[in-house]
Amino acid sequence: MSGVFLLLFAAAAAASFYFYKQMNKFKDQAGRLQTELEEMNQTFLKVRSERHDFLKHISAVQYMMEKGQTEEAISYMDGLVGGYEETNLSIKGETGAVAGLLHHMYKRARKAGINIVYDFEIPLSSLPVPDQDIIGLAGNLLANSIEACEEWQKERSRPASITLQFSKRSGLFLLSCTNESLPIPVHILDRLFVKAGVSTKSGEHTGTGTKIIQDCVKAHHGFLDFIHKEETFSLKVKIPSITK
Q1: With a threshold of 0.90, does the pTM exceed it?
Q2: Does residue 104 fall inside a structural domain?
Q3: Segments forming the whole domain that contains residue 4
Q4: I need a surface site. Which of 82, 131, 149, 184 has the fewest CB within 10 A?
């Protein structure tokens, strides 16, 4: 009788543990979706405000031109075009969730004084994986790059840069990210993207973002390669052209 009781107890404990893990998984997913929604809303509000104020800006430029204030008009237009370019770089051809992420990361990098460039031959949204995975992959790539650049800028007292490139070649989608980075110990580089819990960042970091990147690449039968040389970290992801 006691044996049956122990078996029932063990089964109940196992079931409780399973449901606990599933609950945490759903909580994490809900949190990520909430973040994506907030970023989409911010991008939508940004575009709507730009459209709303467009005629006002044109009227201001026209007034300056009529008054012969050519240099002021040019300076005003330069600032205006720069703001529109920032938004356009993020939303051109992208789905709402991906556009929200790109716009959020662009603003975050620029706020930190980092020069960030999106060099996309095709929209990032065309990557043949669910949007949630694109967010996890690109979001963690950019977040890691921004944090590495912030540390590099603090030590080197110079502006850092990030370049995110996306293209398609011979049936493979190619996503690469390059940024400045402080020297990384060899024992960390050797285990990076191989073992969970390994991070290139200083302080109490668990390497969760790195694991998400690796898991996403593996889940879609992709390949990941990286190199760190002369304080520049470059990572390249190749994912086969398959249907979502």
Answers
A1: no
A2: no
A3: 1-91
A4: 82
